[in-house]
Amino acid sequence: MDKRVIFAVAGSGKTTYIINKLNLIDRFLIITYTNNNVHNLRTGILKKFGFFPDNIRLYSYYSFLYNFCYKPFLHLELGTKGINYEQTPFKFAKKSDRNYYIDRHNRLYSSRIAKLIIEQDVVKYVLARISKYFDFMLIDEIQDFAGNDFNLLKEISKANLNHIYVGDFYQHTFDTGRDGNINSKLHDNFDSYKREFQKMGLELDLKTLSKSYRCSPTLCKFISDNLKINIESHRKDTTNIKMIKDYEEAGVVKNDSNIVKLFYREHYKYNCFSRNWGDSKGEDKYHDVCTIINKTTMTHLEKGTLEQLAPTTKNKLYVALSRTKNDLYLIPDSLIK
Q1: How many Å apart are CA 247 and CA 332, to the nearest integer?
Q2: Using CA atoms, how far apart are residues 138 and 297, in angstroms rounded to an integer?
Q3: pLDDT band for position 180 (50/70/90)?
Q4: Looking at the predicted structure, is the pLDDT value of residue 75 above 80?
Q5: Homologous superfamily in CATH for domain 1-75+120-203
Q6: CA–CA separation, 66 vs 84, rounded Å?
Q7: Is the model's pTM score more than 0.90?
Q8: Relative orientation angle of helices 190-199 and 147-156, to the nearest 10 degrees
Q9: Which of 66, 88, 202, 336 might form a disulfide with 197, Cβ 3.0–4.6 angstroms?
Q10: pLDDT of 176 higher than 70
């Protein structure tokens, strides 16, 4: 029985790998986190088969959590009405109290659904359901599991079927839901993170998706040298990385609708073709990219200390830099109006 976690790099073909595992015989459960990737996987499946096969189930994480794990076992008993993604759970409630998990509108707190499933002792039924209906469980964007959701993942990994988890540790820019100090240090260190999966009985695979198809050797070297994130390329060509320090040239790039501008945050303020660093994760459609560098990041870039950025900032920058298939432009945000 296959039971492993594949640690990938940006542009290495994570989605393609998962789609290549699919067939019309085995029963597949696919779980991913971002809406971008749900779309990418659905598109890839339709392209491969020409239709969406009945033996494949594709879930966003919260759809799986709510509809597959919670609803069949606890919905009627608790009488809830959907999920609260916005509000912070009530801090002073006891975990045995209803308002620890459910708000005054009878909505489940998203960050505590997994904990509720564990505390209500229905995990064994979830495992039985997974094992009954599926032969393979494929989880993409595994790095985004955190908090109570990672504890539930530990339990789900015990299900009697093939487990293949795929993700890029350094693309951890979203959490499935933080809850106080629960697994708060999970992503502090890659080595300790890998050990968590070994404890689950999963084999570590650091080779299958270790090289990028999207990123050129030039860009991979820039990322490895500056962010200290190991990434190699399948390609042999060279591309350009250009630091722009002139207002006029910065304006030309900003106004070029063929070049996406990736901002640290609040991209919508700049009246151009743009996204935020972290929000571009999962996107593979940009030929040339311009990464707008905020003041703190610019200081580290000039000092050669980008690896010292706060982990979340560093990871979002890695995502932004690795979106380009061709040339990369870097512009200080002070030059963008």
Answers
A1: 10
A2: 35
A3: confident
A4: yes
A5: P-loop containing nucleotide triphosphate hydrolases (3.40.50.300)
A6: 12
A7: yes
A8: 40
A9: 202
A10: no
- CA-to-CA separations, 285 to 87, 214, 289, 319, in angstroms, rounded: 34, 10, 10, 13
Separation of alpha carbons 93 and 90, rounded Å: 6
- Cβ neighbors of 330 (< 8 A, separation 6 or more) are 241, 242, 243, 244, 290, 291, 293, 301
Which residue type is seen at 92?
F
Q: What is the C-alpha to C-alpha distance for residues 297 and 314, in angstroms, rounded to an integer?
A: 9
Distance CA 34, CA 194 (A): 22
Locate 259 and state its tokens: 């070049």
Tell me the C-alpha distance between 276 and 11, whole Å.
Answer: 18
Q: Do domains 1-75+120-203 and 211-333 have the same CATH topology?
A: yes
DSSP string covering 222-291, please? HHHHHH----EES------EEE---HHHHHHHHT-TTEEEEESS-GGGG-SSEEETGGGTT----SEEEE
User: Confidence band (pLDDT; 50, 70, 90) for 91?
Assistant: confident
Q: Which residues of 49-61 are buried (b: 16+ CB within 10 A; e: fewer)?
A: eeeebeebbbbbb
123-133 and 71-78 helices cross at what angle (nearest 10)?
A: 140
Residues near 78 by beta carbon (within 8 Å), at least 6 away in sequence? 98, 102
**Can you give the residue ranges of every domain in the chain?**
1-75+120-203, 211-333
Q: What is the pLDDT of residues 102-118, one digit of tens each?
A: 999 999 999 999 999 99
If we measure between CA atoms, which residue out of 254, 257, 221, 218 comes closest to residue 330? 254
Per-residue tokens: 47: 């392209």
**Longest Cα separation, the chain:** 64
